[in-house]
Amino acid sequence: MRKTDLAAHLCSYCIRLLRTAPRYIGCLCLVLSLFGQTLAQSVNVRGRVTDADSKTFLPDVTVTSGPSSTKTDSSGKFSLNVQQTILKQVGLRFTHVSYRPQLAPYDPSDTYQVRMKASFIELPEIKIMGSGLSVLEKAIKRIPQNYPDKAAMLTGFIRLQYLRNGTDHFNSDAMVQLFIPPVRSGREPAARLVTNRTDTLTDPSLIFIKWIGAYHAPLHADFVGKKAAFIDPKKIRTYQYQLTGKRRLGGRTVFAINFAQHDTSGKKEATAGTLFIDSATFAFAGADISYFHLKRYGVLPRSKVQYSVRYRKLGSKWYLQEAFTKGNTIYKKEDPVSLTDYVTTKIDTVNVTPFSYADIIQETDVTQRIRKPTDTTLLNGVDSMLQQTLRYQELYPVAELATARTDARKNERKGRNWLNYFTGDNTRAGISVMRFPLNNYSSSGPVNYGFQLGAHYRLYQGLFLGFEGAGNIGANTALSLYHFRLSYEFTVTSIVGRSVIFTPIVGYNILTINEKSKSLKSQANYWSYGSAVAFELTHQIFLSATLTVADLTLKGTGSFRPTTVSPALGLMIKR
């Protein structure tokens, strides 16, 4: 081959190579690009976080995977874009100030349902440091100027729900008014019911588990008004605090400070949560608070109570705007959960006076019994207003409650009527100091006096059948009296708004006397007549005075002689 032909051939080959090279280079770049995208592929993971005990949603849970992080919303939901390779390596980590950290391994479905277990352990990283302490102390010092210096009346809507095993429901919507005294007055706040609507009681035995204090839930949540320990200057050193930065809350910028108590035993009552302090006024704008290991609330032990509180600035003062409460009760294996959600719709500060005794709802009033359907049209806007609260999504849906109500009517069992009897206003208990209808001529002292216990049950309207037993104080002489009685209650309301109950009584008595030191015994069976008057101290407790007369004859020998009068003074408890 000639040199000229070889040169021409090489030149032609190079020209063809240059023409096709971009095609191969482009393919190579595409392959490398796809390989790189595979290595750093981003996936969207989503899910919901709930409380393992109460099964309710958990907001503000931090979700992290490598450098990516987010927080759950008010309904416990989250959505996060993460690198798949990192997700496969480290999974998702869930943390909350009052729950055990939890790690969820990689799930190919990219959907996670996480249940977090409440835990109260020491958090050594949470300490009062630098600006955190100054922010907290400044907020405490400014309480007198940031909160009402004169009485206010708040009007608002509240929804109450009691759930058991996730299937049995009690639901009530109400309009309430709250009396809020000046923040430094030392006076007690109070609640008054305007109207309520109660339904959806699928299991009558829910009434048997008495729920008290539900209408007071907003007042309990008002940690500024009740001067909670974690904002008390004398007690803040028993807590740990951590300033976590700033965030937006209700359209305002706030400092977020986590706080907790030491509790290495895991058995003591403890508190943890997050305080939100307005950056402009240094007012407490709200808080999320959890109380753990509570001993009792009412008659049942409580494992945990959670509050979510928000305040609103009106003029130069801050007022309670919304309050959500969730309580977990320990009762067999039935997991009762109580929920309340409150929102303020009106604030009055002109010529506000305390509520009268007759109007207030008392702390120990049983929620399921409270009925005041005066004007339920006032409740037409309750759901739309509550939807504006931060924790509305944790309430049980009203539509599902309506279905439960319909099913309950179909499956109603008359065999449970006895529960309604014992949980209604049908029983009375009494404890008193009484004088036996006797005189002892051979000795002096308290031998003629004793303690008396009684129980009384409604037969019809004001008619009660009762049984009482009494024993004396003397050691050497034993007196015992058993009293079966019929009584009829007449109730009137006094000028101060408290009830007064007048009760005529007729009864049959069995009296025995045992003078141990003298080996003497005597006894008497006799009828007695009398009356009692009881004055209301609270809705459940009355101061009671009783006077009965009898004409009795003792059988046997002894040092006692009968008298005709037997007085008693004590307390009557309405159940």
Summarize the structure.
One of its GO terms (molecular function) is carboxypeptidase activity. This protein is of the alpha+beta class and 575 residues long. It is 16% helix and 46% strand.
In oligomeric terms, what are we looking at?
single chain
Number of strands: 30
Q: Note the main sheet.
A: 11 strands, antiparallel
Q: What is the global morphology?
A: elongated
Q: Cα-atom Rg, whole angstroms? A: 35 Å
Q: Spatial order of the strands in the main sheet? A: 11-12-13-14-15-16-17-8-9-10-18
N- to C-terminal separation? Answer: 121 Å
Mean of pLDDT: 83
Secondary structure category: alpha+beta
Poorly predicted tracts of residues: 27-39, 120-130
Q: How large a portion of the residues is in β-strands, by DSSP E?
A: over 45%
Helix content: 10-25%
Domain count: the total is: 4
The number of helices is 8
Keywords: Carboxypeptidase, Hydrolase, Protease
GO molecular function, one term: carboxypeptidase activity
Protein name: Carboxypeptidase-like regulatory domain-containing protein
Organism: Mucilaginibacter rubeus
Please tell me about this protein's structure.
By secondary structure, the protein is an alpha+beta fold. It has four domains: 1-39; 42-116, Immunoglobulin-like, CATH 2.60.40; 130-416, no CATH class; 425-574, Porin (Beta Barrel). It is built from eight helices and 30 strands. Strands 11-12-13-14-15-16-17-8-9-10-18 form an eleven-stranded antiparallel β-sheet, with helices on both faces. Strand 25 and strand 26 form a beta hairpin. Mean pLDDT is 83; it is low at 27-39 and 120-130.
